[in-house]
Design goal:
Layout (H helix, E strand, L loop, with lengths): L8 H4 L32 H27 L2 H8 L3 H7 L3 H22 L8 H13 L2 H13 L8 H24 L9 H21 L6 H12 L6
Helix pairs in contact: 2-3, 2-5, 2-7, 5-6, 6-10, 7-9, 8-9, 9-10
Length: 238
């Protein structure tokens, strides 16, 4: 079956790629903004508070990406933003709240990228994944932070343990649902199990990102994922 012969997602009943953010709290849209955004006409306490939260999240991502959650200190974050501890905790009551806000914002951004690559045909679904992988390649600090925190989260009482457990289950289940429908529509190669492919693809994506963080000159995440998709899918245009 060629790309042009694939039925549209709605007609085929193919679900979209699973969302990454889940039930996320409302956090500022700041991670990709410049350090000194242009001024706007909005004035007053809200603007100042929002700008402060934006700055805290940007710096927190940098600190956590370098030191991890346990070693990353609120003192360093506050000093770099120009706030004392009490002022910092006014915006984010606990260190865990701050970290969770950073991670949910990362997921929200990823969901936007996936949505912007919303497929018109079932054959476009793999390309949505590659679009997100290409975006991630432009944000190495964010990926380093995610990989580090994912590893740390398996330790007892880690504040993101529940977040990573729930996220992993949700994304893996979504991938399996998507691949099961692709299998039913004859899009997967003979002998490919949707369940096994979902788990292995998710594990590959997480693992190859870590390898890329360690050795970016030798590891190409997008090419690796594309190669795996070529192995499990029949004809599709990458």
């Amino acid at each position: 079956m060629t790309a042009g012969e694939h039925p549209a997602p709605e007609a085929a009943g193919i679900p979209p790629f699973p969302t990454l953010g889940g039930e996320a709290p409302d956090v500022p849209d700041v991670l990709d903004e410049p350090a000194n955004p242009p001024t706007t006409r909005r004035r007053g306490p809200y603007k100042k508070t929002q700008a402060t939260r934006d700055a805290i999240l940007r710096v927190a991502m940098e600190v956590f990406a370098v030191h991890g959650y346990n070693a990353g200190s609120l003192r360093e974050i506050g000093e770099r933003v120009g706030l004392d501890r009490s002022s910092l905790l006014h915006h984010f009551p606990t260190k865990s709240d701050l970290l969770l806000a950073v991670m949910h914002e990362r997921d929200r951004r990823a969901d936007e990228i996936l949505a912007s690559a919303h497929p018109d045909t079932a054959d476009d679904l793999p390309r949505a994944i590659l679009a997100l992988a290409e975006h991630n390649a432009d944000t190495p600090g964010v990926i380093a932070l995610y990989s580090l925190l994912a590893a740390e989260s398996v330790t007892p009482d880690h504040p993101l343990g529940e977040y990573f457990t729930e996220r992993t289950r949700r994304v893996r289940a979504g991938l399996e649902t998507w691949l099961a429908q692709a299998e039913a529509d004859g899009m997967l190669r003979d002998g490919v199990s949707a369940s096994v492919a979902a788990t292995s693809f998710f594990a590959l994506w997480e693992g190859v990102q870590l390898h890329w963080v360690i050795d970016p000159e030798r590891v190409d995440v997008v090419a690796t994922l594309r190669g795996y998709l070529d192995l499990i899918f029949r004809d599709w245009t990458s």
